[in-house]
From TrEMBL:
Residues 231-366 form the GTP cyclohydrolase II domain. It comes from Syncephalis pseudoplumigaleata. Belongs to the GTP cyclohydrolase II family. The keyword Hydrolase applies. GO terms for biological process: riboflavin biosynthetic process. It comes from the Eukaryota. Residues 3-190 form the GTP cyclohydrolase N-terminal domain. Keywords: GTP-binding, Hydrolase, Nucleotide-binding. Gene3D superfamilies: GTP cyclohydrolase II (3.40.50.10990). Pfam families: GTP_CH_N, GTP_cyclohydro2. GO terms for molecular function: GTP binding; GTP cyclohydrolase II activity. This is GTP cyclohydrolase N terminal-domain-containing protein.
Length: 414
């Protein structure tokens, strides 16, 4: 039987030095409670982000052997990313493991010796078919070149990566200007006391939090991302399932994402490279339940759903208007070796400031074109612009904001 709190005796965490220049000097992130690894753990939490809970369920019902170790044969990255100088700076990357994709090769010997070490990043390649790209090709906005756009249907050739969070707690605390102990206490409390080691094992500095990660989509040659002589168009997007997947018209999320992809494709076809980073931070990281509660409150508001009240309603319910904390977001750009972005497909001042604060130059900010904004999402976009989002146009105030109204629920007949 595996003890919940193993005796301290014999505990010998694998040496680990965040921000080291090579994976060998840095050491592997060892978090598994596999019997071979239990006493060697140098991190808190579990592999797999939020999916560790499903793994628990699989073990609980007997569908998965708790001692199963992955066979990583042939799972290596489809393209080489890095190493980049940013990886050797303990301050530049604090929320992902820059060596997360080279685990199988860098720590081969440890794995042969029986250690349970897992990649936190996987890099593959794919084709993707999107209705908007099919239309772009049909309307002649985008040409088929056989490389980036591979056929008349507008199918795209991409390299993509999945990245799970790996937090270096002193670095995360420093990024937000707080004490590490304050961060550890809040993480312990707000996860229902789920990770006692946050409090009891201050020697363990790495935490794999049970949250969603991010996906990276690269259009064109991935090596160009870190080449300052090549142009880069990029969009960083936070998940909005209702719009991104299901086409809800209350916000601009999918139209902006698709516009970003089209511009990435265009950049890649002109000899540069395109990048989309997609974060699992639903509803500004407040979650979809909060988001829908806000939608209800907005639509039932006396005087209608107006831009003037947009953020107030969110704050009433969630206590804050945003929990995405973009300060950690640029880590993935450092991982990719990005030093400047030529065209940034976003109006968000929070994303912009986080990237510029991380020392990455943004040369041009590109707003979503007016014709792509669904009527009901005027409320959102005008409220965002009034709160500081980038625009080349007019910033509405006072009564003007109150006059921007969304669709009434009365219009919905069922
Ligand atoms: N809580 C809440 N979240 C929303 C609402 N509408 C959209 N969202 C979320 O807001 C986030 C929007 O992220 P992005 O599409 O990256 O856009 P942005 O950060 O606002 O800025 P841009 O880059 O200019 O598009 C996503 O996490 C959405 O799920 C809303 O009414 N309430
Ligand atoms: Zn949205």
């Amino acid at each position: 039987m595996r003890a919940a709190y193993p005796a301290q005796m014999g505990i010998k965490p694998v040496p680990f030095s965040w921000g080291a220049a090579t994976p060998e000097e840095r050491g592997p992130v060892v978090v598994s409670r596999h019997p071979n690894t239990l006493k060697l753990r140098n991190a808190i939490g579990a592999y797999g982000g939020s999916y560790c809970v499903y793994r628990a369920l699989a073990v609980a019902i007997g569908a998965l052997e708790p001692t199963h170790m992955p066979n990583l044969f042939n799972t290596e990255p489809s393209v080489k990313i890095g190493p980049h100088p940013q990886w050797a700076d303990p301050r530049k990357i604090v929320s992902i493991d820059p060596y997360g994709h080279v685990v199988a090769s860098a720590f081969r010997q440890q794995m042969i010796d029986g250690m349970d070490i897992r990649p936190s990043i996987a890099i593959t390649k794919a084709h993707m078919t999107l209705e908007e790209m099919t239309t772009a090709v049909r309307q002649g906005r985008i040409q088929v070149d056989g490389q980036v756009v591979i056929n008349q249907r507008g199918d795209l050739n991409v390299v993509k990566a999945a990245v799970e969070p790996v937090w270096y707690l002193p670095g995360v605390a420093e990024r937000f200007g707080i004490e590490e102990s304050t961060l550890r206490r809040a993480l312990f409390e707000e996860t229902g006391g789920m990770y006692p080691e946050l409090i009891t094992r201050s020697d363990l500095k790495v935490f794999l939090p049970p949250i969603g990660g991010l996906s990276v989509y690269i259009f064109g040659n991935p090596a160009y991302l870190s080449d300052p002589t090549k142009r880069l168009t990029a969009r960083v997007h936070d998940e909005c399932n209702g719009s991104d997947v299901f086409g809800s018209d209350i916000c601009t999320c999918r139209p902006y994402l698709m516009y970003g992809i089209e511009e990435c494709v265009r950049e890649a076809q002109q000899g540069g490279v395109g990048l989309i980073v997609y974060f699992r931070k639903e509803g500004r990281a407040l979650g979809e339940v909060t988001k829908y509660l806000v939608y209800n409150a907005r639509k039932r508001q006396e005087g209608g759903d107006t831009a003037a009240n947009y953020f107030l309603r969110t704050e009433d319910i969630a206590g804050v208007k945003d929990m995405r904390f973009q300060a950690l977001m640029p880590d993935v750009l450092h991982w990719l070796g990005v030093t400047k972005i030529d065209r940034f497909m976003s109006m968000s001042n929070m994303k912009y400031e986080a990237i510029v604060d991380a020392g990455i130059e943004i040369r041009e900010r590109c707003a979503i074109p007016d014709e792509l904004i669904p009527a009901d999402s005027r409320v959102e976009i005008e409220a965002k612009i009034a709160s500081g989002y980038f625009t080349a146009g007019k910033v509405l105030t006072g009564d003007e904001l109150g006059a921007v109204k969304g669709r009434d629920w009365d219009d919905i007949t069922h």
